[in-house]
Structures are given as structure tokens and as C-alpha cells.
Amino acid sequence: MSEKLERLLKHKDLEVRRQALKDLQRQEKDPLVKVPILIRSLEDENWRVRKTAVEILLDIGGETVIREFLRTLYKGNTNARNSAIEALIELGHIATDYLVNEFKDANIDVKKFIIDIIGSTRDLKAFPLLLKTLEDEDENIKAAVVEHLINIKKNSAVVDALIALLKSADTWVAYHVIAALGKIGDARAVDALISALSRKDLRKSAIIALGQIADISSISLIIPFLKNESKTVREEALKAVAQFFQKGASEGIIIENIKNAFGDEARNILLPHLQSSKREVSAAAALILGLLGDKSVITHLLEMSASEEINEPFIRALVFIGKLMPEALIPYFKADDPYQRRLVCKIAGRIGNEIFFDPLAECLKDRDGHVRGNAAIAFSNLNNPKAVEYIKPLILDEYENIQEEAIMALSRLKKWLNLDEIISWLSDKSSAVRRNAALLLGLLRDGNSVDALGAALKDSDTRVMKAAVDALGAISNPNALNFLLTALKDESPEIRRISVIAIGKMHTKEAAEALIPLLLDTNAWVRAAAVEAVGKTGSEKAAEPLTQLLSDESGLVRIAVIEALGNFKEEKVKKIFLPLLNDRDPEIRSAAVESLAAFEGIVQDIVPLLKDNEWSVRKKVVDVLGKFFRDEGFAYLRETADMDEDSMVREAAEEYLRARV
Asked: Rounded to two decimals, what is the model's pTM?
């Protein structure tokens, strides 16, 4: 190394040191000269200098570089060691054979590094080494291998190897093996885990794992531990039984097994857990007691469903109680907590028992809007013709979303509605009533209402007109299409836009041809809607006029055109897209990338945009590579996951890399 280079590499300014490395790469042609210098720079105190050295070494590549990285694993310098580990992970499958060979004679620390590297790359070529290493005498090595095997769980040999290891492992390794089997969730591990229940030191872990797998064949063997002398074991058994229910086990199976194990004693065994300070434990107790028909836990279940992110199991338990003892839910329609009133209305709707008619009728007048809305939907599930007159007043509720829930509820009671009466609402003095009438007629989809809805297209209130357009689109018959064609000439751009959308949903040849003139509408939003609708038809007549709009003055329209042309998987369309990858507008570049995903052989065309100055464009390229070209794009995704400056782009690339295994 020249004195000048040595001086520059020791300069206090990190940018000077980085530039010295770049100059070395450019000026020195012999790898045997520059690689050792670059390796020494992995010990630099600044991460940016180390990163530059790694990037140059990876660019040089080859056996010499890989062997130098491996030698660096033995060094005492943490910076150099970590940089070598990151570089070997970056090399992925290219370095696997070297890592496997190095492992044979490596010391314990380097073996651990190699296991971590292989675990991160998830190269299945190294899988035999991981399995063989499960026989290693060092417990820390075996534990590390088990942790990484979880990441390649799709390989069935993993489960078989872990099951075999569990039969002979000591407590420390067995603990990790059981945890891995639980996380993998393969039912083939159930028998081995059941065997582990006999060992006190592994019992808790085995119960947790069996709960994660939730294979119904094991529930009868877990339930007896609800009466174990160990409080911790009792709690884990309770949580495991709750997991079975959460993962789909029927109420009947759980009840049968608990009663078989404890008979009438079950309630007394579970009740103390209800007061546990551990939320998971008290929640599990409330859940199981609810299945046993203990109405004293209704309040607990309602509270749990309000606070838990996943509240469906608690609602299921409440529905179960309500079916057994519907009268037990009646007091909760008048609970002080509006959430409880909302929820009990929803539960009553699922149960559909006539006993809830009067309480739901009262809830339609509740001071809380959500209670009124839930009550209306629940009322419709009772399938009672009397419900119609109770729900009707809500079409004038103070909140629009409650009006819409009332409309939905009325539509479910279709066979008891008077169509002429609803049509007459289109002439009501209240614009809210007229709008809701149109919305309801759209849900009913009765062709006899088309003429009245056509007349509503001339309503003085734009929102009524919009509702009428949507309704005509939903009815979708030739008469409705004629009215919508007329609406295409309305002076309101918004009415023209939603009419285009409604016609587009009809999926008829007449509808498709009627939309082509709207591609030249004076309003950009209307043109964009027409582009989207015409593109979905796939009509041969549409390709040419759509292509002409690529020069539209509106970026909104141009993006819509690119997305629409994606439906025409022709080589000439691909040729249209490629120049758009260099458009000045980042949204155009992103749209072009997304539309090119439909074509083969475009990876090399889009990967340059991984260096785009807009993060959103880079993210779009990552998405296309990850979803459609994951194998071909693997190296690019790996580089992006490590190097991109934007965390969202890096995280997206990492997610696709994880999913590849």
C-alpha cells in the first residue's frame, strides 16, 4: 500500500477515507492487492466507511473475497466481524458452499456466526447442515439452529428432525425445540408434544405449543391440567383451551371434554382464574365459563370484547350463551355503557330470537347512534314483518350512516315492503327521504322502479341525482341504461362521472361503446372515469382512443390510461409503456411499472428504477418484483432491503424476501 493511500485511509474525515476506497477500486486492477486493504477497512470506526468497503468487496466478488470474509469472522474486532457477517448474508446462496465447508473446522463462536448467516439467507442447500448440527454437543449451537429452522418451516423435514431431536434432547434444547414446534404449528408434532407433557420441566412449554397448534385430538389431554398443582401449568392449560376455541374448535367439543374431566366441579375450578391479575388468564376463564353456560360472566365477556383487538371469540361465547339463555341478555340492552348496548344488539341479531323484539324496538330510539344502527340491522334479522314500521323512522335519523343502516335493514325485509310507497318517497319534500328512497330502490333492484328513478335524475338536489344514478346502475337493465345514457349529457361533471362508473359496471357491449365518446369529455375526472371503465371492457375499439390519451394534459387521466392499457396484454402496449419509465412525473413512472407487471421479461427494464429519486417509485418496483418476479428479482430485493435509504422501501423488500422461503 502506498504511503499516500495509507495516509488517506487514516484521515480524520470519513469522506476522505471513503473516497480513498473508491479511488482504490477504480485505479487498482489486481484483486490480490486491493482486497486485503478493503478487508482492513472493515475495522474502521465509522459505519459508512465500512459499508463502502463492503459494497466494493461485493462488487469485486469471487472466491478470494468470500474466503477473506470467512477469515474475518475469527477476528476480535466487532466492527469487522459484523461487516463480514452482513456481507456473507448479502451474498446469499453464492456463499453457502463455503460456509458449509468452513463450519466443519470452525470454533464454537464462528459456528454460531455461520448458523446465523445461513439462517438469515434461508438457502435450502444448507438445510442438511442445520439438521446435522442438531446433533452438535454444544447446546447453544443447537438452540440457535432450532430458532432458524422455524424460518424454513415449509420444509416437512424440519418438523421430522425437530420431533426426533425432542425425544433425546436435554431440557435446555428441548425447550427450544418445543417452542419451535409450537410456532411452526404442524399437527405432526402433536404426539411428541403430548409425550413431553409427562415431564414436569417441559410441561408448561408443551401445553403452550399444543395450544398454538390447536389440534383437536390433544384437547382432552390438556384439560386435566386445569387442576394441576402448579398454578403456572393451570394458567397455561386454561389459555390453551381458550386458543382451541379461538382457532375454531366448537363449543360442544370444549364443553364435552371439560364435563368429562371434571363434571359439576368445572365451574369451581375455573372461577378463581376469573379474578386473576393476568388479563389473558381472566379472559380465558370468562370465555370457558361462558361456554359452560355461566351467565355471571356476561359482563366480563362484554368488557373483554370492548378492549381486546380480537374480540370475535368473546362475541361467539356471548352468542352461545344467548342461544341457551336468551333472557340472560335482556338487561344489557339498558346497560350504562353504550358499547355494551351496541354489542348486545349485534349479538341479538346473530341469534335471531323473537324474545329480542321489544328490547331492539326500544334501542331504535337509543341516544347513541351506533346503538340505533345496530338495532336496525339486528331487527331485520328477526325476519318479522312488523319490524318494517319500526325501522322506517330511521331514514330521517340525524346521522347519515344510521340512515344508511336503516336502508340496509329495510332491504333485507324486501318481501314485506310496499314498492309503490318507496317510489312515492322520491317525491317527498325532504331531500334526505328522496335520496334514501333511491338508495333503497338500488338495493331492491326491482325493474318496476326504473322510470321513477329516471325521473329522479332531474331532482334539484345533486345527492338525490347521484343516488338515482347508482340505483339505475345496480338495476342494470336496458331501460336503466337508456336513462344513464341521458345522464352522460348532464351539465354536472360529477353526475357524468358517476354515470360513467355505473354504465361501466353493466359489462355490456352497448355500455362499452357508449362510453368511448366520454374519453373526450371536458372534465378530467370524467375522462379518467371513462378511461377506467372502457379499459375494463377489453374492447378492441378502445385500445386506440385510450392510447391517444397518453398525451392528455391531466396526469390523472394519463395514469388512468396506463392502468387501463394494462388490460390489453399485447406487445404493442408493452412498447408504449417502456418509454414511460423515464417520464418526469413519478406517478406516471409508478403506474408504468405496475402495468408492465402483466408482461414477461420486464425485470431488466424496471430494476433501474430501484435507483429512482422518488421512494414511491422504488417501492412500486419492489412490489412488482416481490409479487410477480420474486426468484428473478431476489438479488435486487436483497440489495434494496440492505441499501435503500427509505425504511418503507427496505421493509417491503424484506417482507418479500421472508415470504420467498
From this structure: 0.71
